[in-house]
Design brief:
- It contains 1 helix and 4 strands.
- The chain is mostly beta strands and 65 residues long.
- A hairpin with a 2-residue loop joins β3 and β4.
């Protein structure tokens, strides 16, 4: 989920450097595996805080306890 003013969105779409605190960028993920060593991941929820960088999107991922 990403939300920002139209001006900030335009700057992001042009690939300009924008302060990550000036827009809202969050995501969530669930992992699925059948491998016995990693099956515990199936019961975890992860959330992420994103930022657009010159080289692409950076997402910091956190496991919810």
């Amino acid at each position: 989920m990403r939300a920002a003013t139209p001006e900030i969105m335009d700057a992001l779409n042009r690939g300009e450097a924008v302060d990550p605190d000036s827009y809202y960028f969050r995501t969530h993920m669930r992992l699925r595996t059948g491998h016995p060593a990693h099956v515990h991941l199936n019961k975890q929820l992860y959330v992420g805080h994103g930022a657009r960088a010159a080289t692409g999107v950076q997402i910091r991922v956190f496991r919810m306890l």
